[in-house]
Amino acid sequence: MIKPAILATLTLALAFFALSARAADPAAGKKQYDATCIACHGPGGIAVAPIYPNLNGQKEQYLVTQLKAFRDGSRQNPIMEPMAKNLSDTEIADLSAFLAQLNPK
Ligand code: HEC
Q1: How high is the pLDDT of residue 9?
Q2: From CA 33, how far away is CA 2, in angstroms rounded?
Q3: Which residue from 4, 22, 45, 90 has the highest number of Cβ atoms inside 10 Å of its Cβ?
Q4: Cβ contacts of residue 58 below 8 Å, gap of 6+?
Q5: Average pLDDT over residues 57-62
């Protein structure tokens, strides 16, 4: 018979695994993108002006890395740093998943 304490530990471990393995949610990313990022990076990730980069179809992992770099200041840009400063890991994952699934143009 499995002891209750072991069972509780296993249940916790499983719950933690389920949480940390949360898949990125592109729909949540789109919502956030359309509320803020769209002002510069444009509808569907096609930038509104030449000074802004297109983001449509960019590699997901690259986007995650760049957004974290802006957030921690290791990539410096006076416009993007404040945009990324308050993003959570979850938001970064969702935004990146959304942008990566758009067709490159
Ligand atoms: C006010 C305009 C503006 C807004 C709003 C904005 N960005 Fe940016 N973004 C920029 C500029 C300018 C750059 C280029 C920075 C550089 O030269 O390093 C950039 C660069 C980036 C890059 C790096 C692209 C690459 O090819 O390396 C990513 C990723 C990015 N933005 C994502 C976002 C996301 C996600 C949001 C919304 C949370 C957002 N941006 C909101 C202006 C903006």
Answers
A1: 73
A2: 48
A3: 45
A4: 45, 99, 100, 104
A5: 98
